[in-house]
Design goal:
Arc Repressor Mutant, subunit A, 6-stranded parallel beta sheet, 54% helix, 6 strands, Rossmann fold, 214 residues, 2 domains, 11 helices
Length: 214
């Protein structure tokens, strides 16, 4: 039986290129493409894909938070995360969010096919380009680093991303269906936790952490 695949990436050229590559492969069928995490969650409900290939850094709702939502609303969909970041913290958090595989974006297409086959069998997959780095970090057992992933809640990271993308408080409240007061409270807590007192500072921090792209 063919595995139904949903591709989620904010770059149309990447989505179409990957769709074309997968079209020639046996046992898989691309059923849709999403521009961001919100659309990915909606399409997953509608199309019931077996696998969601998802970029981590996207506007609106990033891949990390989208994976968390998919784990709740579409548990059968197995997420393969794509990222430019070869950093342990991203790997750790995306697997915590429910992903089954993590690949670097410069991986060979053959490695993606290996990931698809592996997660289809219920196993986990880690890109060869980052496996040694992650294993080395775990062997060294470093102290838990302070980052947006350890300091902020999922909702606070979501608000931080939208603030960094230039949305005003009222726009964020409408987008997240929360009151303006609630968003202001989240913003205050984010600033307190991070020790940053300006939107410009939050934006720089979000870019550095990979929560928003350049």
């Amino acid at each position: 039986m063919e595995k139904k695949i949903l591709i989620c990436d904010d770059h149309k050229l990447f989505r179409e290129g990957l769709r074309a590559l997968l079209a020639g492969q046996p046992g898989v069928k691309v059923v849709g493409g999403a521009r961001d995490g919100e659309e990915a969650v909606r399409l997953a409900r509608e199309l019931s894909p077996d696998i969601v290939i998802m970029d981590i850094t996207m506007p609106g709702l990033n891949g990390l938070e989208a994976a968390r939502k998919l784990a709740k609303v579409k548990k059968s969909a197995r997420v393969i995360a794509l990222s430019m970041h070869n950093d342990r913290k991203y790997v750790t958090e995306i697997f915590k969010a429910g992903a089954r595989a993590y690949l670097l974006k410069d991986s060979a297409f053959e490695e993606l096919m290996d990931a698809i086959k592996t997660v289809s069998c219920g196993r986990y997959f880690l890109s060869a380009g980052i496996a040694d780095l992650v294993l080395g970090d775990f062997i060294k057992a470093p102290q838990r680093e302070k980052s947006a992933f350890t300091l902020l809640s999922s909702r606070e990271r979501e608000v931080l991303q939208l603030l960094a993308e230039g949305l005003r408080t009222k726009e964020i409240s409408q987008k997240l269906s929360l009151s303006v007061k609630t968003i202001e409270t989240h913003r205050k807590r984010i600033m307190e936790k991070l020790g940053i007192q300006s939107i410009a500072g939050l934006t720089r921090y979000a870019v550095k952490e990979g929560i928003v792209g350049l």
